[in-house]
Every structure is written in C-alpha cells, then in structure tokens.
Design goal:
With 377 residues, the chain is α/β, with parallel strands linked by helices. It is built from 16 helices and 15 strands. The protein has an eight-stranded mixed beta sheet, with helices on both faces. A three-stranded antiparallel beta sheet has the order 11-15-12. A two-stranded antiparallel sheet has the order 8-9.
Length: 377
C-alpha cells in the first residue's frame, strides 16, 4: 500500500490505529502534565510521517485529532508543542491548510510546526544530542525506511518519552531475505540479529516466521531502552494473515498498563474476557472458532504455579505477572475470584466480607491472597 492510497478512505483498521494512538496520547498527557509543570512546563507530540491531515472522505487523521483535543483542554493549550513531519510536499501543504482551518487553533501557546524531510540519520543525530521534553512520538512509515534501533533509542532516552511504531509486517518479512534492502533490515534489527534471523527463517511456517520476527524486534527494542514493549496485530479481511502491527514502547510500567487497557478495548475479540490484542475483520464473522480456547482457565493454572506458597496483595500479583501476557487487570480479579470460590486459594478479607457487584464479591487491589504449596509430583 502506498501513502497516497492509504489516505483515500478512512478504513476501519486505520480508524482503530488512530483511536489507539489518540487515546494513549490523552492518557499519557494527563499522567505527565503534573510533573512537567515542575520542569519545563511543556510536553510534546511528534509525528514523523504525518500525512495530509485528512483522509479523502474528510475523516480527521491523527495530527488533527491531537490538536483538536489540545484546543479543548486548558493545560494542553498552554503546554503542548507539536511537530509534524512528512517527506511529501503535497502532504505538508495540505496539513498546514487543515491545521490553520481548525477552530480555536490560535488558542495554542505553541504554533504547530510542520516540517518536510526524510527520516534518517540527521533526525536520529538531532534527537540523540537533544535533551527532550516529555514527548509522545508516533512513527508511522509506509514501509521500513526510516525505522531504526538508533531512532528508537534517541526517542526513549529521556524522561517521559514514549512511542508507537507502525510495523509493516508484509514489507519487513519480504525485506529480511532481500539483499537490496539488507542495510535497512540491519538498522531495524541490528546487524548480527538480522543475519541470524535471516538464517532461522528458512523453512519456517508462516505462523512461526511471524512470531520469530516480532520476538526479535521486541528483544532488539528492549536492548535500546524500551523496557516494556506491546504489539497490536492487524489481520487482512479474511483473517488469514497479518498485514501490520502497532508496537508501543515505553520505559515505565504505568504507560504499559494504560496502553494495554486501550489495546484490549480495541481488540476484535475476547475469550473469557481475555483480549486478543489484534483486530481481525474475520473474527466477527466466525466467533465460534475463537471460543475453543480457554485463556482464563490457563491464567488460573499459571497463578497457582507461579505464586505457590506465597501471600501477596491482588495488585502485587497483577504487577508481577502481567507483563508480556495478554491479561489485563480485570482478568486477574476474575481468575482469583474463581480460585477462591473453588477453595484453591484463601483471600483476606474473605468473599463474604467484601462488597458485591452484580451479586459477585469484588476483588480489590488490597485484598491479600494466600496460595497453597505446590503439590509434590
């Protein structure tokens, strides 16, 4: 898909991508602003591949939605710095016109900055040498050019900086075995990892191939300072293959927790309340297929194994276990409630002494849980 064809219409997948980014930006800003007021009194949103601002059908894309939200909030009007970049002159001119036409745009203290340029070593060098104010970055290239580990490191190195990357799986999957773009693949995965991955992929099934590529990218990003990495998958119309991923990266658990809840709500299916962290048009047409797995039952077994002979608060169980899993906080409360009802764990205070919601005892963060010893084989 080319950049121009992408903006022909606001396809449902594009709308979901935009919702994920804008929802997180708002939540991130509300967390960051109190501390930012004690520092530079500024926060930033930077979009390195901004596009023209609107889809052809008139739907607002991410840059205009971010500015619209900022105009409506007093703190954001006074603090938000925005930089929008695109290499296409037609896109930047269109975006400038659209920004100028936004009602109330003059209320922003800092005028949005629209730049035209290729994302490459110059931008990486600039970010690397700067001490960044708290910034949320959106990096959405059409392929792989411009994406690099050094760019990710230059973005995440400073306090309060998070990013979302658009990972074009189809293009990168093909690129890993294409000598003509070897340099780009090495910039994204590292030279050693790209070579090793290329050898590993030979003979792999499509499912295993995708898992291997995504896992190596997550590992590489972790080495660049992204302590918490969370991918969200988009499938084609039939649900038969992946088209792309959104990949969120942060150094802080709070950001991970917020984004995980947002991505969970945008998932096209849940099983036993556990989100898939993917959007697949097919999942709505074939819901029976997705009820064959029982992920909440699996969580109960995982908790019994992981925390055997331990006594912890509910929130401690959740924080120690959830990173790198598909489970959100509500899943842990439900699983622990089921374990308590079956007599497999003890909770303090017990169910009969806790408030009820929909006739079920609640499982608050402060409730203590005692797990039994692991049975001997």
């Amino acid at each position: 898909m080319t950049a121009s064809s992408f903006f022909q219409e606001a396809r449902e997948q594009s709308q979901i991508k935009t919702r994920i980014v804008t929802k997180y930006f708002w939540a991130w800003a509300k967390v960051i602003i109190p501390s930012a007021k004690q520092r530079s009194n500024r926060i930033a949103y930077i979009d390195l591949f901004a596009g023209p601002g609107r889809f052809k059908d008139g739907t607002l894309s991410t840059p205009l939605l971010v500015l619209k939200k900022a105009i409506e909030d007093a703190d954001m009007r006074a603090m938000l710095v925005t930089i929008f970049n695109d290499k296409d002159e037609e896109n930047t001119r269109s975006l400038e016109r659209e920004i100028a036409a936004l009602p109330g745009i003059e209320k922003l203290k800092y005028k949005p900055d629209v730049e035209r340029g290729e994302v490459g070593e110059d931008i990486v060098k600039m970010f690397s040498e700067m001490s960044l104010i708290p910034t949320f970055f959106f990096v959405d290239p059409w392929g792989y050019k411009g994406l690099s580990l050094r760019l990710i490191n230059s973005i995440l190195k400073d306090w309060g900086c998070d990013c979302v990357l658009f990972f074009n799986y189809n293009r990168i999957n093909m690129g890993l075995t294409n000598d003509a773009v070897r340099e780009h693949m090495q910039a994204l995965f590292s030279e050693t990892r790209a070579v090793e991955l290329r050898l590993r992929l030979k003979g792999m099934s499509p499912v295993d191939r995708e898992a291997a590529i995504l896992e190596e990218l997550v590992k590489a990003m972790g080495e660049m300072g992204a302590r918490y990495v969370l991918p969200f998958t988009f499938k084609n119309e039939s649900g038969s293959r992946t088209t792309h991923h959104l990949i969120f990266a942060t150094k802080h658990f709070k950001g991970y927790e917020i984004m995980k809840e947002i991505m969970a709500r945008e998932s096209s299916e849940t099983t036993q309340g556990v989100p898939s962290f993917e959007y697949s048009p097919a999942s709505r047409r074939f819901p029976v297929l997705f009820e064959l797995s029982r992920p909440l039952d699996d969580l109960e077994d995982l908790l019994m194994e992981r925390f055997a002979n331990k006594r912890l608060k509910m929130v401690e169980i959740y924080e120690r276990h959830n990173v790198g899993t598909p489970y959100i906080k509500a899943n842990y409360k439900r699983a622990l409630g089921a374990l308590e009802a079956s007599g497999k764990i003890k909770a303090e205070p017990p169910a009969e002494e806790r408030p009820k919601r929909n006739e079920e005892p609640t499982f608050a963060d402060h409730v203590f849980v005692t797990f039994p010893r692991r049975p001997r084989p």
